[in-house]
Design a protein that fits this description.
Number of domains: 1
Largest sheet: none
Radius of gyration: 16 Å
Structural class: mainly alpha
Strand content: under 5%
Helix content: over 70%
Number of strands: 0
Order of helices and strands: HHHHHH
Shape: globular
Length: 141
């Protein structure tokens, strides 16, 4: 299996908790007592994971670009953690903003040739769905 195909498969599978827990903020699902907390926590973890892409880019370079990418790589983890410490409403707003900002950073990295060509189209679709799920959950507050 090609790397891009496996990455797509895993990326889209990673949307399942976003969709399920976003829906669970609208309708009651068994075994989900705190759907907002579960969704915010999952989103924070995934945001941190997505930031780590830039850590990997930095590790493969030894230049000024590497320093920028390394610094960028830790910001999503810190902001994701912060989103869990503030109010649920503000946590959603922060996470939505971060996912959009990280996509913009990914776009700059892709334009600079730091990411493979298949990565950005996948990220655009995944980010759109994640943002929609988070916004839908935010609308229930």
């Amino acid at each position: 299996m090609k790397l891009s195909r496996l990455a797509n498969l895993l990326g889209y599978a990673g949307l399942i908790p976003f969709i399920v827990f976003s829906l669970s903020t609208w309708i009651t699902l068994p075994l989900v007592d705190e759907p907002h907390f579960v969704l915010l926590t999952y989103a924070a973890v995934i945001l941190s994971f997505m930031g780590a892409v830039h850590w990997g880019v930095a590790m493969s370079r030894s230049s000024e670009v590497a320093l920028t990418q390394l610094a960028l790589s830790v910001i999503p983890a810190v902001l994701g953690w912060l989103a869990l410490l503030i109010s649920t409403f503000h946590g959603y707003v922060l996470l939505i903003t971060c996912f959009i900002a990280l996509f913009i950073a990914d776009r700059y990295a892709a334009d600079a040739g730091l990411l493979p060509g298949w990565y950005l189209p996948m990220r655009a679709q995944l980010t759109a769905i994640v943002v929609l799920c988070l916004a839908a959950a935010l609308a229930t507050l």
